[in-house]
Amino acid sequence: MTVSVLPTVQLGTDGPFVGVQGLGCMGMSDFYGPTDRPEALATLDAALEAGVTLFDTADAYGFGRNEELIGPFVRANRDRVVLATKFALERTEDDPGRRSIRNDPAYIRAAVDASLRRLGVDEIDLYYMHRRDPAVPLADSVGTMAELVRAGKVRRLGLSEVTGAELREAYAIHPIAALQSEWSVFARDVERTAVPAAAELGVAFVPYSPLGRGFLTGAFQAAEQLAADDVRRTQPRFTGANAAVNAELLAPLREIATARGVTLAQVALAWVHQRAEVHGLTVVPIPGTRKRSRLAENTAAAALRLTAEELARLEPVAGEVAGDRYPDMRLTQVGRE
Ligand SMILES: NC(=O)c1ccc[n+]([C@@H]2O[C@H](COP(=O)([O-])OP(=O)(O)OC[C@H]3O[C@@H](n4cnc5c(N)ncnc54)[C@H](OP(=O)(O)O)[C@@H]3O)[C@@H](O)[C@H]2O)c1
After folding, report:
1. 23 CA to middle of ligand 1, Å?
2. How many Å apart are CA 291 and CA 294, to the nearest integer?
3. Beta-sheet strands, E only, within 111-242
4. pLDDT value of position 4
5. What is the 208 CA–ligand 1 centroid distance (Å)?
6. Is residue 227's pLDDT more than 80?
7. Given a cut of 60, is residue 2 above it in pLDDT?
8. Residue range 195-202: average pLDDT?
9. 160 lines ligand 1 (CB under 6 A)
10. Is 79 helix (H, G, I), strand (E, B) or coil?
């Protein structure tokens, strides 16, 4: 497949237009093993060339280092890049696996200033609440985010891993441009309440981990082969007996990929892109990669259309996946629905 510049879609009802596929920058600083920094920076430039304009980071990625990494690139291309970052996951380097969820107004006000400083910009285009703390009313958390819009620090608001009801409640406080949650051939719990609410409200959906953290590409072999600090060593879908069960589930993706002369990653991404028509909403997946070769492969998938028969073959896969998305599902919207 050849790469052409991506078509654009609008984020929310009055948000910016972005390339229909964004880039997840997380792996450039954290979670998936060592990074070749020059190659990661070249990947950012290649993404922009290919029509990717939505670049996704968070203050928690690499304890702020991911924002610092992409800052110079963002500043050099400020008029073309739509910059998304997030607050709410508090982590410390001495215990990197532990997360505290912080939604309190004082924390949010300090977090945005820290992100702006690390990124070296005056304004964040899309500011997400990374996780919801149900103990803090949305009136306080989203209300504080709305203050940041009025203060000119943030242009648009987003949420991550919230239920449909939470999205509706938040939207009534301030328009929400995008909902970012996990959505892939392997992860479809968002279709219960979050996707219908986003479609109804005109909120764009930004699927994260659209490649199942790499599992859907067929490249994953065994948790033991991953770097010692790779987070997937602790994730239920990659470990123990689950990994072998899930590897078997790749068979239909492999068959479709072979028949169409494309890669498994491209089949997985095409499936996510086609959720837009299936569910009637704007969908901008943000596959993560640190390599130009994979960037080209992934953006080309935006032009791949699976047939109704191919989609039907992928339909049962998510229901058969072994293991939860996270070791601790309380950090997601599941259980609050
Ligand atoms: N809101 C949230 O809570 C949340 C949670 C997780 C992630 N995110 C965001 O979503 C982005 C994407 O999610 P993700 O990185 O977790 O998972 P993903 O996009 O499903 O998969 C990324 C993994 O797949 C590999 N990969 C990418 N393209 C490939 C290809 N064509 N062939 C083979 N391997 C390929 C990457 O390795 P290489 O880098 O070596 O290519 C990386 O290990 C993140 O970067 C982050 O910005 C948000």
Report:
1. 9
2. 6
3. 124-129, 154-160, 178-182, 204-208
4. 64
5. 8
6. yes
7. no
8. 98
9. yes
10. coil
